[in-house]
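Obj.: predict assembly geometry.
Materials: sequence records (below).
Method: joint structure prediction, all chains together.
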Amino acid sequence: MSEFAELVDAHYQALYRFGYSLTRSPDRAADLVQETFCIWAEKNSQLRDRSKAKTWLFTTLHREFLGQRRKMARFSDEPIDENSLGAEAGGEDDAERQMDGQRAVELLREMDEIYQAPLALFYLQQHSYKEIAEILDVPIGTVMSRLSRGKELLRKRMVAEPSSGPKNLVDVNPELFQNNNG
Amino acid sequence: MDKERAKFVLRSFRPDGADALDNDFTEALQMATSDRELGEWLMRERAFDAEFAEALARVDLPEGLRESVLLAMVRDGQGFPKVDSQGQEEMISAMAGIEVPTGLREHTLEAMERTAKVERVNFGWKRFGIPLAAAAGIALAFVFVDGRQKNGIAGSEQRITIEAVQAGFVRTFESPIFSLDQESKHAPNLISYLRGKGLPCGQGYLPPGLIGVKGLGCRELVIDGKRGSLLCFDDAGGTVHLVIFRRKDVGGELPGISSPLIEQSGHWAEASWTNGDYVFVLLGVRDMESISTFF
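Observations (raw structure tokens):
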């Protein structure tokens, strides 16, 4: 298998999920992944340290996302892809589990924008907080603050809407705590 | 470091334990082991994180994404996969010598016109995903022919790779919060437990070298939304782990048990094979020669 195919196999799934959590659109996320690898193919000879490939790919996808969003803002009459969530869901037997994933993405998208990318990268578990800082081009302390604050807000949002959270998440329904307390 | 600072630091600690060796977390983690309230908070935090991460990993991929990425590279030229072995050169030469049926080109073009235009820009998955995946599968079958084809090509988008299974196990096992769902010295008890949970058991079929080896325990192993089983054994040479997934969930070709694919990945030796409807991976911290003695 070629080096390129190995690189694609190793990272395209996580890249897609990152792109999807940013755009909430299967088409746009797939486009971002494709574009990212095309840029890699054009520029990979410039990257001497191959161990940095993963971080490079995520950085590139994030920059592409920001660039596309800027263009969309500039041309506000451009149709925005509003594919409904769940449209690309897997088999019927997995529908319930898939809903959990979609809801997780929805919850991330409902967060303030500054928390979305750090939280998505954190929960994809592909990168340390230092690498997340590198990908997003922000100081390490900022990433730690955004993760800390973002996770706190995520929990609060789920407490506020307990029935809409992923089914398997730890139950944070305050009523349960009240019951436990007598 | 006070408790609030420790919580602040630990909120950046990944739920799979990948940061366990990062010195930046050492002090906060040590504090969590000695402070009960902080320890309990950390457990709740990590359980929440792990569940959320798992939910996020359940987002399905669009059909044909991998093939489309590779096809885009082939079309762009820059990323055209290089022939890197004599074997592949011979294979490609041999493929080039195959006579093409008369009219194939015209029929193909006609069929493509009927289905969809293949465009890279503004790629619409719902409209073009399947035809493009099919086209990509044909193109890539000529480009990526490889004796092992471990990652599969067309039609395997919804499957995980054997490498993902191996990496998923290592990530889970090396997590500081790794635990077993059921403990027993007797493998049949463990297999019964897994079967009762609806998890793949490989019909209880073990490699010859594992028969009679004392069991330790078992648990469910979820990788990219696919449910598998993990059985741990207390072998004389150290603990070994048998991972079992359903064949339909794992892409790529694998050998049978008589000649498993044996590889070394860091300090882990891995043997992979398939048997009927199941895929097996036996892993241990040892060398390849040692893992091969189980077969």
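Conclusions so far: The first strand of chain B starts at residue 182 and ends at 183.
To do: check interface contacts against the pulldown list.
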